[in-house]
Design brief:
single chain, 447 residues, mainly beta, Immunoglobulin-like, Methylamine Dehydrogenase, Chain H, eight-stranded antiparallel β-sheet, six-stranded mixed β-sheet, 39 strands, 43% strand, elongated
């Protein structure tokens, strides 16, 4: 038994030795496939976008309006690779996917793109048979005319205002000569004497309609128009109390606006809820009591004052722009296409108007117009103009906050905190800029 054990041990040793000496012949066994060719991805975009630049797998795309944006792609996967994936989901070799993850009303909401300067990278991944992944990054930026790096550094803070909790919003913020802030909600006026820190509600006796816009005479007397019924109200105590003005005006359904020129001339826009009304139009007064109709036109959206006795009146349907020096005679200016005129103002270089699509400037008194959008997000929503007493000019384009016209004739965003809010009204009180929003029912001030 002892000899057998030694013999067995010797055989085992010889077997192990032979295994170490003789190479394993595996020529007939399959080897892992080595893939040197990487996948390629060809990207294109739908017709409403323009490819501005391509640098390898980075793409810069410009969209002229809020648009439906999608990507078409073709993926070439070499042997040894699986079909590509996007966000973990399989992709076919040819197809498209939409970027409209925050799509609203059939259009792509580009608010966040304006604020960030672009979209996060979209990554298309291609995986080989053993699970190794190759990433083909598609970086898409959407400048859309707004350079995020050109934002005027500014910080906004919310002003406490209780009535907004009732889902109401102010049609106008107004700073008085005595340093108060006024706004209104339905048939109640609110007044603040501490720059918006606290507000006092003021009810107007026997009034059940709602108010339009405030204005103030150089003598300190305040005025506000009203709807349903269309009357004028005035205050002699900085907005603490209001009384109806007894005038010789016809019966109106609404007085949409009242302005007082630097020549102390009063103008109002009045209208009646009746077809082919003969009372619709602009009225002028020297004292706010006795009035004369000076422009027979309906559908008035607003009255704007220029230099000295200059007055602009703009209408909606049909769109028109009327101009006068002193209000006695009027000239109907040609406007770009048939766009909805939102606002008008006189600036040093000419006449500025905003429409539902663009901002325009005329340097020849309205004979011709040029697009004046440099730096503005291209929004199809209203662009109110506000000209401060200091001469500063602001625009509020849609849901993109507040933009200021700078000395180089470019629009620059005033901070980004209000970039997702539609700002309805701006005013300046003792050098402090205030803004009211209508889609979030709040008031803000610039720090």
């Amino acid at each position: 038994m002892k000899n057998l054990s030694i013999y067995g041990l010797m055989l085992l040793s010889l077997f192990v030795f032979s295994c170490e000496k003789e190479p394993i012949d595996n020529e007939d066994e399959p080897m892992d496939e080595v893939v040197n060719e990487l996948p390629s991805i060809e990207v294109s975009f739908n017709a409403n976008s323009t490819l501005k630049q391509q640098n390898g797998d980075e793409y810069t795309v410009e969209v002229p309006r809020e648009a439906d944006l999608s990507i078409q792609y073709k993926i070439k996967t070499p042997a040894g690779y699986k079909t590509a994936t996007f966000g973990g989901d399989p992709l076919s070799d040819v197809g498209q996917f939409s970027l409209n993850s925050s799509k609203t009303g059939g259009t792509f909401d580009v608010t966040l793109i304006y604020l960030s300067g672009g979209l996060p990278p979209f990554r298309l991944e291609v995986e080989d048979m053993k699970g190794n992944k190759v990433e083909a990054k598609v970086l898409i930026t959407l400048p859309l005319g707004f350079d995020a790096s050109s934002v005027l550094q500014a910080e906004w803070e919310e002003v406490t205002f209780d009535p907004f909790s009732e889902n109401q919003f102010g049609q106008q913020l107004f700073a008085t000569l005595d340093g108060s802030l006024l706004t209104h909600f339905d048939n109640v006026i609110y007044r603040s004497t501490d720059q918006g820190e606290s507000w006092e509600p003021i009810s107007v006796p026997s009034f059940n309609g709602w108010f339009s816009k405030f204005t103030q005479h150089p003598d300190g007397k305040l005025y506000v128009g009203a709807y349903e019924p269309g009357n004028l109200y005035t205050s002699n105590d900085d907005g603490v109390s209001w009384t109806k003005v007894q005038t010789d005006l016809p019966v109106f359904s609404g007085i949409s606006q009242m302005v007082i020129s630097s020549e102390n001339e009063f103008y109002i826009a009045g209208w009646l809820n009746a077809q082919n009304s003969t009372v619709d139009g602009v009225y002028k007064s020297a004292n706010g009591l006795k009035w004369q109709k000076v422009l027979n036109v309906g559908g008035i959206e607003g009255i704007s004052l220029g230099s000295s006795s200059e007055v602009f009146v703009h209408t909606a349907y049909p769109a028109s722009l009327h101009h006068s020096l002193g209000g006695e005679s009027w000239n109907k200016l040609t406007i770009p296409s048939a766009e909805f005129v939102v606002d008008a103002a006189r600036i040093s270089d000419g006449i500025l108007i905003t429409t539902d699509q663009n901002v325009y400037i005329s340097k020849d008194e309205g004979s011709s117009w040029e697009v004046f959008n440099d730096g503005l997000p291209q929004s199809e929503f209203l662009k109110n103009l506000t000209v401060m007493e200091s001469g500063e000019i602001y625009a509020t384009p849609g849901n993109y906050g507040v933009f200021k016209l700078t000395e180089d004739q470019n629009w620059r965003s005033v901070g980004t905190a209000l970039g997702t809010y539609q700002i309805w009204s701006l005013t300046s009180l003792q050098g402090q800029l205030f803004a009211s929003g209508i889609n979030n029912e709040k008031i803000y001030k610039l720090k």
